[in-house]
């Protein structure tokens, strides 16, 4: 049925294509924004039909408009035929999307990759920027697996199972305890570690599986094939390159490298403990030699992983369908073999070996923290160099947005790993005296959370004061915008407050800058304190002034409590989102913004929905205009306007000149242009304006997301419409007898300017324009 209707909507494979001169067909392709919606709401009709697509993403029409091209007499409404592209299930579909919360640090570091400043003639520096972000992403994978090793190997198998009091409280660990099990076979420290290693190994395999499966479900759609331009011509934006939305080769290579890195981390955690015991005086010489060989093999595999990550990133100038089979298959296999050898080596019988103290976690977490700090620092230098080559006054933090976000990703990874370790330690050691607990560095990192929160509270207070000042200033502007209305102080305050709160979005970069800078300084202080004292903050401050000692103990206790509370809220929110569709849609809004970009820095990040949505839109636009020759307006709201722009860039030049673009509530310049200047900067948006037939942008002063495009040298007619009135009526009128609501970011179609601007766009599109003959026809779907 759907296949028949799809043929009917385009004239069918055997019917002659309807020409605009015969039918005057015009199409409005609606693309919704963040949070998603239903086709019934988008089309304002309870009877809708899926024209093409599946249960994940599809195009819908009103039931009366299915055959509008072949039966124009049945289409009695004024204006174009509306179509709705619904893609919300890509980010907020079934309950498993809630598990993506665990991948939040990976998503954030992937965003940092695309926040590169615009540059001119700095190819090697641009590649260095991408390389540093990929290495930061690799460190996050190692950190996550190391945290799992800390929980399973150190806290559970090494400390708790090796302590009689802890093992007796947790009977499920009894068979691992030398005293409770009376020297059972699994009670050997090496065998306990080998058995516990299945937890971080299973986590690594799960991440590999999710990355592979989400690629097949979301990102395996091939873009519309077209001839690439010259490789040395970068153009104003990379979003128009043929292979931009098809990163299969890079994702597969990075997935293999990160999987191998996780397996090598587990193997090193298991094998290093046994090798350290074998190196003690009187240890078996054979096992000592095997331990050295195993550590050398693990180091070689780690070097291979880093080399694979350091290789050139994406191939965007062409549709790259190749795979690096020798890397994708052999590297994880080699790491798995080394893990098996490590388990066998650790499980060998060693009489007299007993577990005491902690595993060497401080050195591991300290090295990861140091490497991450150095990477972020060097990344900031590289970003500054790139920004100086092509300064953009609208770019956030003068080009340092990427390093700031990368720092936040590392901080999120540290807080999550420290929170899990702290909570598991408190659960295993109810008395706080039977085991040593997590590494000292994680305790120091928890202790710096209260000062960070204090700084954020001060910053939030400043933003609230700034919003109050803006609201006072906006009251006069509101009075000027409604000059013929009797002024109501309460109504004016509400409108002014909505405008002031919307304006706070432009101060988000300062919030990110302060948070990132303070996090870097506090993290460096925690690392120095842990490495120089090898004690918790409370123990290290013993003997100092009472005020200092009390502050250190308070920060340590409060930090542990805050991490525990955050971890509980995190799990609770994820569980609620798994069961509640409304909560899942709220989380989906976060993914709508964060997962627009391809996985170029981290393969375990949530999947990129745009690698499915952009090809969908491109195919629909190209095939409809080719078959019918009609006029088409891409109508995008909020995040849908970003998808619409990306799809327009992917069209062939001849097709791009045949469509109009209508955006409203659009973050194209306000968010994407400022945070991603290399891809949505003034040059990129200016080229889009020149290449599409016509473009109009609507926004409101009360909208916290959408804003003007602000093209330099905007010619008449310009892209930006003046700010729409919100509310539509200040008081009660004949058209609005009840108080009109403040719409903010929603319901742009309710404004009369929307239909007026759409009509102007359709009027500018020439109805007698023939179908393009100089571009290849796309293959049949």
From TrEMBL:
Residues 1-22 are annotated as: Disordered. Keywords: Membrane, Transmembrane, Transmembrane helix. SUPFAM superfamilies: alpha/beta-Hydrolases. This is Integral membrane protein. The chain crosses the membrane at residues 128-148, 193-210, 256-275, 290-310, 331-348, 368-387, 399-421, 441-464, 511-531, 558-575. It comes from Streptomyces djakartensis. InterPro entries: AB_hydrolase_fold.
């Amino acid at each position: 049925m759907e296949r028949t209707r799809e043929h009917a909507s385009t004239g069918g494979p055997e019917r002659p294509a309807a020409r605009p001169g015969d039918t005057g067909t015009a199409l409005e392709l609606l693309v919704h924004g963040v949070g998603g919606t239903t086709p019934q709401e988008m089309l304002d009709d309870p009877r809708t039909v899926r024209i093409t697509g599946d249960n994940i993403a599809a195009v819908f029409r009103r039931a009366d408009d299915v055959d509008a091209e072949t039966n124009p007499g049945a289409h009695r409404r004024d204006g174009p035929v509306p179509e709705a592209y619904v893609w919300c299930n890509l980010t907020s579909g079934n309950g498993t999307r809630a598990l993506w919360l665990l991948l939040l640090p990976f998503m954030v570091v992937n965003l940092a990759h695309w926040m590169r400043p615009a540059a001119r003639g700095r190819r090697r520096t641009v590649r260095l920027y991408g390389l540093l972000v990929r290495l930061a992403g690799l460190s996050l994978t190692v950190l996550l697996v190391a945290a799992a090793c800390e929980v399973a190997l150190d806290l559970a198998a090494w400390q708790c199972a090796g302590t009689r009091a802890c093992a007796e409280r947790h009977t499920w660990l009894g068979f691992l305890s030398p005293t409770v099990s009376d020297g059972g076979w699994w009670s050997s420290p090496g065998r306990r570690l080998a058995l516990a290693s299945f937890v971080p190994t299973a986590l690594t395999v799960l991440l590999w599986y999710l990355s592979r499966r989400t690629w097949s479900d979301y990102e395996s759609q091939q873009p519309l094939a077209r001839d690439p331009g010259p490789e040395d011509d970068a153009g104003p934006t990379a979003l128009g390159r043929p292979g931009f939305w098809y990163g299969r080769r890079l994702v597969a290579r990075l997935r293999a490298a990160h999987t191998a890195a996780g397996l090598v981390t587990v193997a090193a955690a298991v094998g290093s403990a046994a090798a350290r015991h074998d190196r003690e005086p009187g240890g078996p010489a054979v096992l000592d030699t095997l331990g050295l060989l195993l550590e050398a093999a693990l180091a070689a595999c780690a070097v291979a992983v880093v080399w694979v990550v350091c290789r050139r990133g994406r191939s965007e100038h062409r549709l790259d369908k190749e795979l690096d089979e020798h890397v994708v298959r052999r590297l994880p296999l080699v790491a798995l073999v080394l893990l098996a050898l490590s388990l066998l080596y650790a499980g060998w019988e060693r009489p007299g070996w007993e577990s005491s103290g902690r595993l060497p976690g401080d050195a591991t977490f300290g090295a990861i923290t140091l490497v991450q700090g150095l990477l972020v620092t060097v990344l900031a230098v590289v970003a500054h160099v790139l920004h100086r080559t092509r300064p953009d006054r609208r770019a956030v933090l003068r080009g340092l947005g990427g390093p700031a976000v990368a720092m936040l990703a590392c901080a999120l990874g540290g807080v999550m790993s420290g929170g899990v370790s702290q909570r598991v330690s408190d659960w295993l050691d109810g008395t706080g005296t039977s085991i040593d607990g997590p590494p000292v560095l994680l305790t120091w990192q928890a202790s710096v959370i209260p000062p960070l929160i204090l700084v954020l509270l001060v910053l939030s207070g400043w933003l609230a004061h700034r919003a109050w000042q803006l609201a006072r200033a906006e009251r006069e502007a509101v009075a000027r915008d409604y000059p013929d209305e009797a002024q109501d102080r309460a109504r004016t305050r509400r409108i002014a407050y909505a405008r002031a709160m919307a304006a706070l979005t432009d101060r988000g970069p300062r919030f990110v800058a302060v948070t990132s800078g303070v996090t870097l300084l506090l993290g460096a202080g925690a690392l120095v304190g842990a490495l120089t004292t090898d004690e918790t903050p409370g123990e290290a401050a013993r003997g100092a002034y009472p005020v200092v000692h009390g502050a250190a103990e308070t920060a340590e206790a409060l930090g542990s409590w805050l991490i525990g509370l955050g971890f509980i809220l995190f799990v609770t929110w994820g569980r609620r989102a798994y069961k509640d569709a409304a909560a899942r849609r709220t989380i989906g809004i976060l993914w709508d913004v964060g997962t627009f970009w391809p996985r170029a820095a981290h393969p375990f990040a949530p999947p990129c929905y745009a690698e499915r949505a952009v090809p969908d839109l491109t195919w629909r636009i190209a095939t409809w205009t080719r078959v019918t020759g009609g006029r088409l307006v891409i109508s995008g709201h909020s995040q849908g306007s970003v998808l619409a722009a990306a799809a327009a860039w992917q069209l062939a030049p001849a097709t791009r000149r045949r469509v109009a673009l209508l955006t409203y509530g659009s973050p194209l310049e306000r968010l994407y242009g400022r945070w991603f200047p290399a891809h949505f900067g003034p040059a990129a948006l200016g080229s889009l304006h020149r290449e599409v037939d016509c473009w109009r942008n609507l926004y409101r002063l009360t909208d916290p997301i959408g804003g003007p495009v602000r093209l330099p040298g905007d010619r008449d007619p310009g892209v930006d419409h003046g700010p729409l009135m919100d509310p539509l009526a200040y008081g009660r009128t004949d058209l609005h007898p009840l108080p009109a609501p403040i719409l903010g970011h929603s319901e742009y179609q309710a404004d009369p300017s929307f239909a007026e601007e759409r009509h102007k766009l359709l009027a500018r599109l020439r109805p007698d324009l023939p179908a393009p003959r100089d571009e290849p026809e796309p293959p049949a779907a």
